Amino acid sequence: MREEEFPIPKRLEDAYRFKPSTQILIYIVLLVIGALVLSMLKLGWPLTIYIVIFIVYAALLFPVVIKIENQWKITFSLGLYGAAMAAIVYWTTTLLESFDLRSVSLYVLFLLIMTVELFHHLGEDIVYEESKKVYVGVAVLSAIFFTFLYMFLLAYDWRITIFGSILATILFAYAILPEKPI
Amino acid sequence: MANFIWLIVSIIAAFVTCSFIGWKIARRDPDLGKVVDAIVSHYLDERRFHVDKIAEITGMSGDKVRRILKRLEARGIVRGKGKTYQLVDPLVFLTPIDLERARRITKDDNILYGAYQNPYLPRLYFLTMYLIFAADVIFVLLVFFNVLPSLTSWLENILPKEVSVNAFLLFLIGMGIIFVDALDNIIKAWAREKYSVVVGEKSGISYDKSLADELSGKIRRGAIADVDLQFTLLQKLLNYFIRVPIGDVIVKAKGQEKPIVFKNMPYPRELFYVIRSIQLGSLGWRKRYARTLMMWRARAMVPTA
After folding, report:
1. What residues contact residue A179 under an 8 Å CB cut-off, 6+ apart?
2. B125 CB near a chain A CB, below 8 Å?
3. Interface contact flag, A8 B95, Cβ < 8 Å
4. Residue A182 DSSP label
């Protein structure tokens, strides 16, 4: 093999992936299969819950199947993020059965985790940049996480309250720190 | 019906708003393109350059160039030292500390490729961490659907009186996700310590043999007899879906009976090319594709429309 025969595509990953049209086709087929499975489930839930599940499924599937890298992909990906978060917030509010401060803290913690982790999943091209802004964001989110977890754990022994909040916050901060793709 | 309309309207509104933000974020930055072009055309092969020099070439202000270089540095595309920078080879994915270590050990060689083996594939047992999350989800479902009433009442007993069980179940799912994500970070960091492969222009291939190793495995440039690229069916299938494509690169060294296999290496075709080119002693292809490679490395910052 001579070195002139080393072909480098514009995007190195292209040599390993399906063609963009095939990726889109697979995504659509998997969405149809998902919708079919949901339509066959007989759990007696209202239609809105099935819609929420379908939107979240579509959002989780998108970055796994679609590997195209362009402005349209990022746009659609973030659009799906917004749609999935709106669906999750709606679903969470339907589950609200107590306005006790500790219960509200748990709902807020769940929404906080979903907001960050779903963004991690759908905004993967944006999240791994290590910058001062990102670290400040991680610090602010961790502070919010600590506050709400502390409020929930206040009902328990002070050792559980303090050490539980600190340990869980460290875990949270470590999980959401920007990570290198390789 | 009102709930249904509310849900649909909020989903559409959030989709449109976030799409608009995404479109803005992913917009092409012409100034960044200019800086990348200036670096690739004048400062390949890790030659150092000054901020002012790039400002002079591009006709942009020093502050603007500095801001762009900082962004490129955050992405690992250039390395900065004071007001001077140097281009990091686009196929080097090492952390700054490991890159320094590689430079030190290869006596400041021009590092053409540096990466870590995929942490999961050689050790599938790491995937068992997902079982923890699966157990978490099963527990939540059992309580939510009240499959085992004793389990539900046990949970109600340990929670403070006013706390909603559903809220706690949601919290459990959230913590399960966080736990798995943190564990994934730990595994990746550990794999970084152990399995790195570095290819230098003159030093050849250096690789870690054990956890405490300092790139003691070596195949000199002149000792490379042959190099081969292989994909297993699993790797081929995974490459369609995982973020970083992987494959095996097999190197036969002169005087050694057994070939050395670098398993599950990121961008294996490119590693193959790099090894082949140092074996041939010619890096012409790399120079020819320097701009393509650098633009690819900066891809999230310079999206191709």
Report:
1. A128, B185, B188
2. no
3. no
4. -
Using CB atoms within 10 A of its CB, is residue A122 exposed (0-12), middle (13-18) or buried (19+)? buried
> A-chain residues within 8 Å CB-CB of B93?
180-182
Residue B246: closest CA among chain A residues belongs to which residue? A16
Instruction: Quote the minimal CA–CA distance from A141 to chain B in Å.
Output: 13
The answer to whether B13 contacts chain A (CB < 8 Å) is yes
Using an 8 Å CB-CB cutoff, list chain A residues near B28. 71
Nearest to B39 by CA among B71, B15, B12, B10: B71
Angle at the Cα of B107 from the Cα atoms of B103 and B108, rounded to 5 degrees: 50
> With contact defined as beta carbons under 8 Å apart, do B60 and B49 qualify?
no
Query: By mean pLDDT, which of A38-52, B7-21, B22-36, B170-184 is the weakest?
Result: B22-36
Distance, CA of A9 to CA of B169 (rounded, Å): 47
The complex scores an ipTM of 0.89
Q: Residue B209: enclosing H or E segment and its boundaries?
A: none
Residue B257 burial by Cβ neighbours in a 10 Å radius (0-12, 13-18, 19+): exposed
Most B CBs within 10 Å: which of A103, A148, A172, as the mutation test of the B interface?
A103
pLDDT tens string B260-298: 999 899 999 999 999 998 998 877 777 778 777 877 877
For the whole model, what pTM was predicted? 0.86
Is B170 close to A48, i.e. CB distance below 8 A?
A: no
The dihedral over CA atoms of A138, A143, A147, A148, expressed in degrees to the nearest 10, equals: -10
Q: Are the CB atoms for A117 and B181 separated by under 8 Å?
A: yes
Q: What is the mean pLDDT of chain A?
A: 89
What is the mean predicted confidence (pLDDT) over A43-48?
86
Burial of residue B246 (CB within 10 Å: 0-12, 13-18, 19+) is buried
For residue B241, give the amino acid letter: F
